[in-house]
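INFO worker-7 received task bundle
INFO bundle size: 2
INFO processing item 0
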Amino acid sequence: MVDVFESISASKETELKISELLSTQSIFELVFEIVKDSGFYNQDENFKLIRALNIDTTEESLEEDLYSTWITMGDNLNTAKTQEEFNAKFALFVPIILKRMELINRVAI
């Protein structure tokens, strides 16, 4: 998880670019596999939370959807009081972020 934020914080720009977010996809994929293997996504409560968080956005483009979801994730992570809570919140957003990234990649091909 730290790799994602280190990758983004390496940017010298004041505003995140979609290409910078997309460059973290391989890290999100790795985290997804690790979390999936732990059984976290198989727990009913976590699955329901992911479905609830995975709402359609009202943005005009797929890129804006990703950016909006990323900001929502960041806002939620900033409320974590413990490392465990941070990790759980991050894990909940991983499949949602990946879905948004994959949609952008499909259109780009």
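INFO item 0 finished
INFO processing item 1
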Amino acid sequence: MKNMHTITSATPSAAPPRRMRPPRVDWPALAPRVAALRAQGCSTRETARRLNMNIKTLEAHLRRHRIRHAIPMDRPDQVRRTCLNCDTAFVADGRFLRLCPECRAMFS
């Protein structure tokens, strides 16, 4: 019995061009605005909210480029926190403080 399948010759045909969609976020244009907001002390959530973008998109970008925290710490007992009331980033003097100084002053 003869094989009914025909083998096509492996001619180097031009592969169709791969479709590439344009990037959804223009990172070179957004990078200075992201850096400015993070330098002001905005959290990742607040930065994403001000730029009208998804927080997971911004987190993935920051993780991919290894951009961590914008607020420097002076002492080893300080901790970076996000305020539970206003979502701003701040450096707490102890690990149990969860409200920024402005919100603590407002509530006390």
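INFO item 1 finished
INFO post-check item 1: The beta strands are 79-82, 89-92.
INFO post-check item 1: The chain has a mean pLDDT of 80.
INFO worker-7 idle
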